[in-house]
Amino acid sequence: MESNPLTIWLVTGYLLCLPIIGWLAKSKNIRLKDYYLAGGSVGFVGLFFTLYATTYSGNTMLGFAGRAYREGPVSLFAVIGMASVIPIFFLFARKLNELAKEHSFVTIADFLKLRYRNLGLVYLVNSLLILTLASYVLTNLKAAGLLVEVISDGKISMVYAIFGLAVVMALYESLGGMKAVIWTDMMQGIMLLLGSIVVFTVVFMEVRTDAEFIEQLKLGSDTWVPMDANQFRRGLSLIMMFGLAIAIYPHALQRIFAAKNWETLKSSFKWMCLMPLVTTLPIMLSGMLAIFILGDSQSLHGADTDRVIPILLQHMSAKIPMLQWILALFLAAALAAIMSTVDSALLSLGSMFTQDIIRPVSPNLDDKRLAIVGRIMTWLLMFVTAALAAFISKTIWSLIVLKLEIMLQLAPSIILGVLVARLSWLPVLCGIVMGFFVTIVLKFIPSFEPHMLGIHAGIWGLAANLIVVTLIQSLCQSKRSDVSSRSNH
User: Fold this and answer.
1) How far apart are the C-alpha atoms of 432 and 462, rounded to whole Å?
2) Could you tell me if residue 414 is inside a domain?
3) 352, 386, 408: which is the final residue of a domain?
4) How high is the mean pLDDT of the chain?
5) How far is the C-alpha of 268 from the C-alpha of 259, rounded, in Å?
6) DSSP 3-state of 362
7) Rounded to two decimals, what is the model's pTM?
8) Are residues 360 and 432 in the same domain?
9) How far apart are the C-alpha atoms of 2 and 313, rounded to whole Å?
10) I want to staple 153 with a disulfide (CB 3.0 to 4.6 A). Which of 3, 5, 188, 344 is the partner?
């Protein structure tokens, strides 16, 4: 697509604002809690927008739209999946927020240490969280690079775009920490919301002018997957995977720690219930409608489908020049969504390295020196993941699913850890190992089917995980009962 000067100026202005926001958010207070959690007193407006901008990212604007284009109505299960995150939050967020206030948690490892008192479990969970967070940053950097390549009509390659954006994000985040992330998330969230609604409105009005559209929609596309029992099961497993895995994103949990109180969290969650309907649904419907508007002449395949919305808007703006403004808004909004997610994940990664790895090794380091180490880690982590993102060729959706399937195996350690007081560390540790093993075997060994009976590998892994947790917990309780009865005699 041809580069649009309006888009270039809008995106350039937006990127220039971010380091300024980072500078303004800079605080003289060097406590780690202030840097990583904005002091733990984030109010409703800041909390809502940082949750929204963090949850809905470039994966939504590009990856979800690409999947809807490829697979059609089956992909809409993802909308329900995004909505299912909020009920999961309501299960455990209140108690976790209260514990965070009482014990000054900075990272999820602080909770795990207090709850299980076993370093082996803490290190295992932390390692998998770091792996999945790095993957999260990677997928969004890949999306950002693709977007800038589209905006510049190929004049800026994806590789240069990824590294350029990495510099901007590392700069404003290392200056202002969580406070800078929240301020930028407010701006990015508004852009994302407007972009999703406006793009769908424009696309819908375009297809309404086509008298054959309703008939086409009934017939569907030759490339779309038919809705059968197998796809229905796959959709249900996707809903479960989204709800449980996204609810334990480390950067989402840090928002729970940072919230002022439960009332603030509850108000934010209530508003978040509406967001799949005004963000995920419009974008995915736009991706589905694109297959009719573009037709066979611009058929997309594989990773190219992740660019379907910008290509669609460019195609439409050739007929309606005023749509150049909508294209510019979407591209800027998509870039904002990506960066809001990357900066949050990056901040969580930095806090985990600083609080959970560096501090135990060097307990004599004060907060000032640890904060310096954290800033250095921010830059290092950003450029390592940027280098990986530049050379990964898979679709964004496939990387999203892999990340969520691994995250699922950690859900019992956090959600059940909050809810079930008698749960001990050994069943949880064994459950994670078994769940991870089953997921990897089903996912990557050729002789196995990654969607057995239409169910994602990660769900099978979670089932094995919970079975092991239940069995070993029962054995542990039986042994404790036997020991107790002998001591009484």
Assistant:
1) 8
2) no
3) 408
4) 79
5) 10
6) coil
7) 0.79
8) no
9) 12
10) 3
Q: In the listed set 408, 437, 472, which residue is the last one of a domain according to the structure?
A: 408
CB contact at 8 A, 415 and 91 = yes
pLDDT tens per residue across span 401-415: 888 898 899 999 999
Does residue 417 lie within any of the structural domains?
no
Is residue 404 domain-shared with residue 436, that is, in the same domain? no
Q: Is residue 123 part of a domain?
A: yes
Q: Is residue 416 part of a domain?
A: no
| 25, 194, 351 from 428: Cα distances, Å | 40, 42, 24
Query: What Å distances lie between residue 113 and 95, 108, 256, 265, 414, CA to CA?
Result: 16, 9, 18, 24, 11
- The encoded tokens of residue 273 equal 């219930």
Query: Rounded to a whole number, what is the largest CA-CA distance in the chain?
Result: 88
Tell me the pLDDT tens digit for each residue of 442-462: 888 766 666 677 788 899 999
Report the CATH number at residue 372: 1.20.1740
| Contact yes or no for 462/435 (Cβ under 8 A) | yes
The total number of residues written for the chain in this structure? 489
Paired tokens of 222: 């030759």
Phi/psi for 102 (5° steps) reads -70, -35
State residue 259 phi and psi, 5-degree precision: -60, 145
